[in-house]
TrEMBL record:
Main location: endoplasmic reticulum
Region (Disordered): 244-329
Name of the featured protein: protein disulfide-isomerase
Domain of life of the source: Eukaryota
Phylogenetic lineage: Eukaryota, Fungi, Dikarya, Ascomycota, Pezizomycotina
GO biological process: response to endoplasmic reticulum stress
Length: 535
């Protein structure tokens, strides 16, 4: 059947523009997950007083879609206690930032907690289970604890410290400090000293007349009488209870203005340059505001109706200022298999088709940038993956136990090196990429050679292959055959018979192997015949 190119293009355009705005990302406007981008990350996450979990994702990532329900549940459970955020790394403005954060695949989860210096948070990779409970537990464990542990022996000392300032104390029959109390201590740090006292400290319990647990008491300071809280043990009402003596800290804290300096002749010249730069920055800001007005209409945060954004050029930059180091853009990023189960189900079942796996090297420092070879390999494979839609392309981090098993079973290089290989578990073979260069052309040639069955293949150990789930069916993605221009010269063709050109769909891997076997058998037969003729 012949289709009109114009009609197909029109239909595709109609479908594209009919998609809702939320199709650009996984999380909708009403999601409890805070959506950030490269510009708002510093203000909403890095400068925050609270611990955050940040997901780096791509809308086309199947594992990211699977994580969504658990991630949103974790966001609901942590509301008011910590931030649960996500950034779409498939958007062009966000790609350099995602790369600078060491993202090697999707989804990647990182815990970001306030550091000793404001605006310099500590970033850690999250390697736990992808369940709501596991995520909540991991984030709660990283919430800074500013709660004082007070006992009978230390009560007088705690009360005497800043006697005129407000204090609050939770009397509890539990030995651990809850995430709720930690969050309150963060919100009122510097204005209200918050403590926890156990029921075992009987002298203090009797002094305050505590009869049940938990009991929350506010000491306004000075000679004012203590006030007992009688509401629910939840963040919002407890924060309002404390706010009657001191407001909570803004999040993030407002920037402290720098002291003005006297202008010397040199400074006057620099100020003139800065003034010119500031004009350019203002114009850029105005232009960016106008162009992003439509986009920000669908953005959201948990605390405000609209997503706060920063200036595209928030800092005035002069010619004398040092230039920032450019962050490499690794282009389209591949889906990451974080667990051994994901690796097995994707590539190592008895019904799995061909997978191209990139085994990433181990890193002693999770925040360290990727090596040049790894970045080149990932960029090349990301670009090539769009060409070979029938195959699956994945990255395998060193933290996945399956990566170590593959390196050992297949006698691959040490985990300090990047390794690329093709695996066909259904046919029980694999083939390594043994070249030293990871340029796009070199990797593309290798993938084409695997596709055409060229070169030697190694036997995949049976111990690595797992049975396919009985009820599972592997969906095959049909690849559009590549369109090639065919030129036929009738003058150079023998005979006068009319000829006919048949167009066929791309044949399967099994058909390729069958044809290759027949060709080899035919070649051997011809060689045998030639030898007989020579006799």
């Amino acid at each position: 059947m012949v289709y009109s190119t114009t009609l197909l293009a029109a239909a595709a355009a109609s479908l594209l523009f009919s998609l809702p705005a939320s199709a650009d990302g996984i999380y909708t406007k009403n999601s409890p997950v805070l959506q950030v981008d490269a510009r708002s990350y510093d203000k909403l996450i890095a400068q925050s007083n609270h611990t955050s979990m940040l997901e780096f994702y791509a809308p086309w990532c199947g594992h990211c879609q699977s994580l969504k329900p658990a991630y949103e549940k974790a966001a609901k459970n942590l509301k008011g206690l910590a931030k649960v955020a996500a950034i779409n790394c498939d958007e062009e403005p966000n790609k350099p930032f995602c790369s600078s954060m060491g993202v090697q695949g999707f989804p990647t989860l990182k815990i970001i907690k306030p550091g000793k210096k404001a605006g310099k948070p500590v970033v850690e990779d999250y390697q736990g289970q992808r369940t709501a409970k596991a995520i909540v537990d991991a984030v709660v464990d990283k919430i800074p604890n500013h709660v004082n542990r007070v006992a009978d022996k230390t009560l007088d000392e705690w009360l005497a410290t800043g006697n005129d300032t407000a204090k609050a104390v939770l009397f509890s029959d539990k030995g651990t400090t809850s995430a709720l109390l930690k969050a309150l201590a963060i919100d009122f740090l510097g204005s209200i000293s918050i403590a926890q006292i156990r029921d075992k400290d009987t002298k203090t319990v009797e002094l305050f007349g505590i009869l049940s647990y938990p009991t929350f008491v506010l000491l306004p300071g000075g000679d004012k009488e203590a006030v007992v809280y009688d509401g629910e043990m939840k963040k919002e009402p407890m924060s309002a209870f404390l706010a009657q003596v001191a407001p909570p800290n803004p999040d993030p804290a407002p920037a402290v203005p720098k002291a003005a300096k006297k202008c010397s002749g040199k400074n006057t010249k620099k100020a003139s340059k800065d003034s010119s730069s500031f004009s350019s920055a203002s114009a850029s800001h105005s232009s960016a505001d106008a162009s992003s007005a439509k986009a920000t209409a669908t953005a959201e945060t948990l605390e405000q109706a609209s997503n706060p954004t920063e200036s595209p050029n928030p800092n005035v930059v002069s010619e004398d200022d040092p230039k920032p180091v450019p962050v490499p853009n690794i282009g389209t990023m591949l889906q990451m298999l974080e667990t051994e189960e994901q690796l097995q189900q994707a590539c190592l079942t008895s019904k799995s088709h061909i997978c191209i796996l990139t085994l990433l090297p181990a890193k002693s420092d999770p925040a360290a940038p990727l090596s040049e070879d790894v970045q080149t390999a990932l960029k090349s494979l990301g670009e090539i993956s769009a060409k070979h839609k029938r195959w699956s392309f994945f990255t395998l981090p060193a933290s996945n136990p399956g990566a170590s098993a593959l390196r050992t079973s297949l006698s691959l290089m040490a985990d300090s090196e990047v390794e690329v290989l093709a695996i066909n578990a259904r046919k029980a073979w694999y083939k390594r990429y043994v070249r030293t260069s990871f340029t796009r052309d070199a990797v593309d040639d290798w993938v084409d050679s695997v596709k055409m069955g060229e070169g030697k293949k190694e036997t995949l150990p049976e111990s690595l292959v797992v049975p396919a789930p009985a009820a599972a069916t592997t969906a095959k993605v049909k690849e559009e055959p590549e369109v090639r221009e065919i030129k036929l010269d009738g003058k150079n063709m023998k005979g006068d018979e009319p000829f006919k050109v048949e167009f066929m769909e791309e044949i399967s891997d099994e058909e390729v192997e069958r044809l290759m076997r027949e060709a080899e058998e035919g070649a051997r037969a011809r060689e045998g015949g030639n030898a007989h003729d020579e006799l």
